[in-house]
Write a structure and sequence with these properties.
six-stranded mixed beta sheet, 7 helices, Nucleoside Triphosphate Pyrophosphohydrolase, 15 strands, 27% strand, binds zinc ion, 337 residues
């Protein structure tokens, strides 16, 4: 990838898979792919898929003998490629659900089967566990991260949009899982992404401003963020959200990259912004944000090392915005007890 100056290795923005969009309308092709035992199926049950640790020949398995909860926490900070998705053939995925064409890579078709139902469709074998993208996204390799992000986004969309917004009739999945059609009025409906901005505010002394949300424990801090409202540009959203949440004025925005955040449907647009000289002092809005604090690099390092300051896990663009300012990886995160 050329050096664009952007954040290029965001955990959920990897993959670059061939989505084979030109195949989505070809029902015969998709049915044939489903009958091919070489096709790989990712079964997603209520947002979770089966994953297992990757055994490295030269060392101990990265994941071994961990309890479910322990594995979830551990994997959140495991290195990329240390966990893989459990993919099966179509004949091992004979469950009712929406089939989604995820990708075609090296002649192999990858399909997600989105299963609802109260119970997991089958027991996870051989140390595999059911995990959500949030827990394992950063630990998956590039291909698997790309597959799971798309599957999660579409699973959330299908679940949340079962009816026609025009007439209320139940819609049916179409175009290899990439749209829904209303049988009553033939209207077509497509997955959407809701843009949101996420911003690290810096002052001219090179300090960074972080906030703590009302529901977070003491010491948990992150960047400021908010949804782009109807009729609003992303840049205006940055300025408005920072003023609302932290009471300060910013300008000189640097756009640094984006990543999907399909919980359920966000696209996070990452920025650094500079405090305007003469801005009012930072103060929390008292509702969403109950504490705002300026950090020097030394305060950030010492706080993270001591555990008195906890920043989001490495899957988040928030952490990447903080580490880009800091200039190096920081220790600790919310994911660790
Ligand atoms: Zn309708």
């Amino acid at each position: 990838m050329p050096d664009t100056g952007l954040l290029v290795t965001l955990a959920l923005a990897r993959g670059g898979l061939d989505r084979a969009a030109e195949r989505r309308s070809d029902e015969v092709w998709f049915d044939t792919a489903w009958s091919d035992p070489a096709t790989r199926v990712l079964v997603v049950h209520r947002g979770k898929a089966r994953v297992r640790g990757v055994e490295q020949s030269a060392r101990e398995p990265v994941i071994s003998d961990l309890s479910y909860d322990g594995a979830s926490r551990r994997w959140a900070e495991a290195e990329s490629g240390s966990v893989e998705l459990v993919l099966v053939g179509p004949q091992q995925a004979a469950y009712d659900g929406v089939r989604v064409l995820l990708a075609v890579e090296n002649g192999i078709t990858y399909v997600a089967l989105l299963v609802e139902g109260a119970r997991e469709p089958w027991d996870a074998p051989d140390g595999a566990t059911w995990e959500g993208l949030r827990e394992v996204g950063a630990a998956l390799g590039d291909r698997d991260a790309g597959l799971f992000v798309v599957a999660t986004a579409l699973a959330n969309w299908h679940t949340g949009h079962p009816r026609c917004p025009r007439c209320g009739v139940a819609t049916v999945a179409a175009q290899a899982g990439w749209s829904r059609t209303c049988p009553a009025d033939a209207s077509q409906h497509f997955p959407r992404s809701d843009p949101a901005v996420i911003v690290l505010v810096l002052d001219d002394d090179d300090r960074a401003l972080l906030g703590r949300r009302a529901e977070w424990p003491d010491g948990f801090f992150s960047t400021l963020a908010g949804f782009v409202e109807a009729g609003e540009s992303a840049e205006i959203t940055v300025i408005r959200e920072v003023a609302e949440e932290a009471g300060v004025d910013v300008d000189r925005l640097d756009y640094l990259g984006s990543q999907p955040w399909p919980f359920p449907a966000s696209l996070m647009l990452g920025y650094h912004a500079r405090l305007v000289p003469g801005s009012p002092p930072a103060r929390p809005d008292g509702e969403e944000i109950t504490e705002v604090r300026w950090f020097t690099r030394e305060e950030m390092r010492a706080g993270c090392e001591a555990g008195s300051v906890r920043i989001p896990p490495s899957i988040s663009i928030a952490r990447r915005l903080i580490e880009r300012w800091y200039g190096a990886p920081l220790p600790g995160s919310w994911a660790r007890p």
